[in-house]
Amino acid sequence: MQPDETARPSVTVLVTGAGGPAAVSVIKSLRADPSVRLVAADMDAWAAGLYLLPPDARTLIPAGLDPDFVSVVLARCAALGVDVLIPTVDAEMRPLASARAEFAAAGIEMMLPPARALDLTLDKLALASCCAGRVLVPRTEPFDATLDPASWEYPVVVKPRTGSGSRDISVVVSSQELAGMERSVDFIVQEYLPGEEYSIDVLADAAGHVVASVPRVRARVDSGVSVAGRTIHDPGLENFGAAVATAAGLTYIANVQARRDTAGRPALLEVNPRAPGALPLTMASGVDMPRLALDSLRGYPLPRHVDFQETAMVRFLDERFLDLSEVQKLAA
Ligand SMILES: Nc1ncnc2c1ncn2[C@@H]1O[C@H](COP(=O)(O)OP(=O)(O)O)[C@@H](O)[C@H]1O
Ligand SMILES: [Mg+2]
Parallel, antiparallel, or unpaired: how do β-strands 11-15 and 36-42 relate? Predict the structure, then answer.
């Protein structure tokens, strides 16, 4: 506990996506702060993270793509006395960002980066051009009529400009194969990066000053989720994460993904402008990103720099046993 924490006014924080590991890690972090009252939200009454909190701190909300999502969340935040909203679901980011002023008028702040940073991270082509010249960026072009398959070295990667969860990604091995594919401006062609992959968790304060940059390596992945991994001290990667966050103007917690090229140099894959699912590893390494990010959002100064220790993590499923009525009551 920070020395002055008991004297802080209390704050009510709503964390969305309670069924996912990112929300669970944010809840685990913030519940250690005695000035924080937490509320967990999800679209599904079976979302595990809801049950980390008492019954009056659980709430169901629509999916991010539902036309009623923003109005329901705003009304719910007002009813529950929420001061800060922390979204952890990709599909919620844009709708919430476009309603930022409405929420602010109701006294509710969002832990979201500025609109420009959000736009950049949701568009892998725009992000690549923004970061070119600041960090190494793989050759990236829109998959439109102007793309010349003969000008590329193979393999290449074809993936959506705005995508997540590795959906619709293909590795294309020849110019003939690429020439035979249907072109779409919603897709990009990218140089294939054959080397080791890193997730760099970056914490920037509310003004965008980078306070910590923590590279992680996934040791084992099960169904897309990192189930074992380690943090790694590597000044090249730490500076890479910080440079990308600064170039994109990110604030609070972001996750910069990179992979080494044929020459072994880290190059940019993408950025997720939110807490990643493997955040407990970064927290255990010495950087409690959700608490520090919330402190900055609340106007408390952060240290200029927070360092970390290399740490390894293994993960397993855990159980909570409930009276069935607890789930049924929420779903009703
Ligand atoms: N240019 C590339 N070279 C090698 N692997 C890639 C490349 N682009 C994507 N991948 C692989 O596909 C995964 C998902 O791609 P990414 O750009 O992170 O999109 P998503 O938003 O779907 O996570 C990456 O983690 C990486 O393993
Ligand atoms: Mg990714």
Answer: parallel
Find out whether the beta carbon of 275 lies less than 6 Å from any atom of ligand 1: no
- Whole-number Cα distances in Å, 148 to 103, 151, 160, 274, 295: 46, 6, 18, 35, 49
- What is the rounded distance in angstroms from the CA atom of residue 122 to the CA atom of residue 100? 17
Whether the pTM exceeds 0.85: the reply is yes
**Ligand 1 binding pocket includes 123 (Cβ within 6 Å):** no
At 266, give phi and psi (nearest 5°).
-65, 135
Sheet holding 266-272, edge to edge: 266-272, 252-260, 197-204, 210-222, 225-231, 312-314
Residue 308 and residue 231 in contact, taking contact as beta carbons nearer than 8 Å: yes
Which tokens go with 6?
Answer: 């008991």
Q: What is the residue with the minimal CA distance to atom 4 of ligand 1?
A: 193
Q: What is the CA radius of gyration of the chain?
A: 20
Sheet bearing 140-143, strands edge to edge: 140-143, 184-191, 156-160, 170-172
Residue 33 sits at φ, ψ, to 5 deg, of -95, 110
Q: For residue range 164-211, what is the model confidence (pLDDT) as tens digits?
A: 888 999 999 999 999 999 999 999 999 999 999 999 999 999 999 999
Nearest CA to ligand 1 atom 2: 192
